[in-house]
Amino acid sequence: MALSASAMASVVNAIDPAMIVSHKFPEVTFGYDERDVALYSLGVGACSADAEDEKELQLVYQRNGQSSIKVLPTFVSSFICKSGSGLRLDVPGLNYDPKLLLHGQHYIEIYGPIPSRANVTNKIKIAGLHDRGKAAVLELETLTCLEGSDDVLCMNRSTIYLRGAGGFSNSSQPFSYATYAANEVSNVTFPDSTPSAVYEDRTQNSQALLCGLSGYLDPLHSDPTFAHAAGFSHPILPGLSTLGFAVRAVMRSFCSMEPAAVKRISCRFLHQVYPGETLVTEMWLQGQRQSRRVYYRTKVKERGRAVLSGHVLLEHMFSSL
C-alpha cells in the first residue's frame, strides 16, 4: 500500500536509534495450561476438517493413556503476545503509526520439549534495527525460560517493518544494527522439482477471532474499521496463525505429527490471508535422514497468491509419506 504524504510526514524523523538499541525490557512471567495449548491448536486448524482425526486429537485431548496433550511447536509463537501489547511496542525513541506496522518475518528455535502446562519467563531484547529508507526494520528477540530457571525453552525473533519510519540516518551509510550472525537466517530458494508433498487446508470465517483467544489481539485481525484504515478490505488472519497452518502441514507430511521433531522454523510473510480462504502448502524435503529441512510455500487457492514461505528443520524424523 502506498503511503500518503501526510502519513509520511507524521512519522518522519521519528526514530532515535541510540535510545532504541539501549532499551531494557522488563522480564515478563506468565503461566499457561492445557486449555491454552488446545485452544491454540484449534486456532490454527487442528481437527477443523475432521474432528476425529487420530493425528490431531492428541493436540486437543488426552486419550489412549496420554499423560498430557501434545504441543504444536508454533504454540511458542504466542508467547510474544504475553509481553505488553505484543508487537506494538512502546519503546523510547520509537515513534510510528501503528496502522503502518507489518510483521515481515519470524524465526523460532526450540531447545527442548515444550510442556503442556508451565510458568515461564520472557526475556526480551532489541536484536536489530535497520534504516531501509522508506521503512524502519526492527527485530525483537524473546527468550522464554521456565520460571526461576536459566533453562531456555525457545527463542522467537520477530522482524517488524514500520512503514514510513525510515530515513532516520545518513542515506549514504544507513544505520544497521544486529546482535546475531547474518547466516542464522537463510533465504529460501525453491527447487524446480515437483513438491515432495502438498497439503490443503480451509480456514474458517471466524479463524482470526479464534486465534485472538491465544493472544493475537491486534485490531487488524478483528476490527473492520481498523482493517479498512490499514488498507485491507476485511480483518486479516494473523501471520503467525498462517504459519501455524503451514507447520501443521509439514508435520502431517513428514514427521507423523510428532512435535519433538521440529527444531527450527523460519518464515517470511508475503501477503495477507482473509479468514475463510483455502491455504495450499507446497513442500520440498531435502537433507539427510537424521536432520532434514523442509522448504515450504503457502498459497491462497482462491487468489493464486503466495502468502508465506520458509523452511522447517526436522531432526530424528519419521516420514509420513
TrEMBL record:
<dbReference type="InterPro" id="IPR029069">
    <property type="entry name" value="HotDog_dom_sf"/>
</dbReference>
<feature type="domain" description="MaoC-like">
    <location>
        <begin position="191"/>
        <end position="300"/>
    </location>
</feature>
<dbReference type="Pfam" id="PF01575">
    <property type="entry name" value="MaoC_dehydratas"/>
</dbReference>
<dbReference type="Pfam" id="PF22622">
    <property type="entry name" value="MFE-2_hydrat-2_N"/>
</dbReference>
<dbReference type="InterPro" id="IPR002539">
    <property type="entry name" value="MaoC-like_dom"/>
</dbReference>
<dbReference type="InterPro" id="IPR054357">
    <property type="entry name" value="MFE-2_N"/>
</dbReference>
<feature type="domain" description="Peroxisomal multifunctional enzyme type 2-like N-terminal">
    <location>
        <begin position="30"/>
        <end position="164"/>
    </location>
</feature>
<protein>
    <recommendedName>
        <fullName>MaoC-like domain-containing protein</fullName>
    </recommendedName>
</protein>
